[in-house]
Amino acid sequence: MKKTSTRLADGRELIYYDARDDKVRDAVDRRPLEPTVTSSQVRRDPLLGDSVAIASHRQGRTYHPPANECPLCPSQGDRLSEIPDSSYDVVVFENRFPSLAGDSGRCEVVCFTSDHDSSFADLTEEQAGLVLEAWTDRTAELSHLSSVEQVFCFENRGAEIGVTLGHPHGQIYGYPFTTPRTALMLRSLAAHKEATGGENLFDDVVARELAEGDRIVLETEQWVAFVPYAAHWPYEVHLYPKRRVPDLLGLDEEARTEFPQVYLELLRRFDRIFGEGEPPTPYIAAWHQAPFGALEEFEGVSRDDFALHLELFTIRRTSGKLKFLAGSESGMSVFINDVPPEAAAQRLREVASS
């Protein structure tokens, strides 16, 4: 992999990740852009104890542009985009409309391919491996920023999810705090460790799924994917490396080599869940990594106790119907799942690639 860092016309950083070491990236951003101005701030909710990002400048962000005006496609002639070069493999750049910025963290966009009409599932294993390298590199780089305590790599796919740009892309958030969801995991991890005399909760969860077997979606030498026992979403898969590591940086070469094949297979199965002729399945793919900040409040827990994993889920519960977060979910954070996890796992095994 070759990494080339440059600057856009308004001063934002842009990084090319190329499969070939001899690729030259010297294109200049020719747009007459003013410096980016953001008004992002983080406010803490005194009742719930969580944090909310206030980012009013995002109201003016690009919203469903036509394909010939896509800001994530390469620049061509006088048609100038966020990517100055006329082609790219994988590219990462600072978001022009960030939810978090400055002392409140950082937001980046990850373009998986220059092909506007494809998706992550259409990538080759080499391309998917390059995306993994980009995620890993950005995790390492952002972890060194004083304003970042946790790095979150994710993809929102589909208009139903709220995606405003159709080009295949994801995002990376550098939060200035440990996120509420991760904090819950760490508290459960600490409680389990104390209750069992030192057992690791993540290890025990994976061991249970492997032992019971009926929620396993696929298993390889390095990875295991399963529908969790208490899945929140109609079709939800958790993907774990079999050797526990706290973050993407901890993956060894064997796990990195095997990941593209496993992940692409999961994504392709997701597009087959509801049968032939159905539109692409909307989904969220979310990497859970250990925070880089101090963990003193989670007594007895270290970063190495956390288990890197990816959670992949769709908000579609059946053909033509979405799972809405209504009163119980939105008002009380109590999910009601319409699809038994065992049935979801069975369906995801049925649609395996032949």
List the helices and strands and how they pair.
Blueprint: E1 2-7, E2 13-18, E3 41-44, E4 51-54, E5 90-94, E6 106-111, H1 125-142, E7 150-157, E8 169-175, H2 180-196, H3 201-212, E9 216-219, E10 223-226, E11 235-241, H4 253-270, E12 283-288, E13 309-314, E14 316-318, E15 321-322, H5 327-332, H6 341-350
Antiparallel strand pairs: 1-2, 2-5, 3-4, 5-6, 6-8, 7-8, 7-12, 9-10, 10-11, 11-13, 12-13, 14-15
Characterize the structure shown.
The protein has helices spanning 125-142, 180-196, 201-212, 253-270, 327-332, 341-350, and strands spanning 2-7, 13-18, 41-44, 51-54, 90-94, 106-111, 150-157, 169-175, 216-219, 223-226, 235-241, 283-288, 309-314, 316-318, 321-322. Strands 1-2-5-6-8-7-12-13-11-10-9 form an eleven-stranded antiparallel sheet, sandwiched between helices. It is α+β, with helices and mostly antiparallel strands. It has six helices and 15 strands. A hairpin with a 2-residue loop joins strand 14 and strand 15.
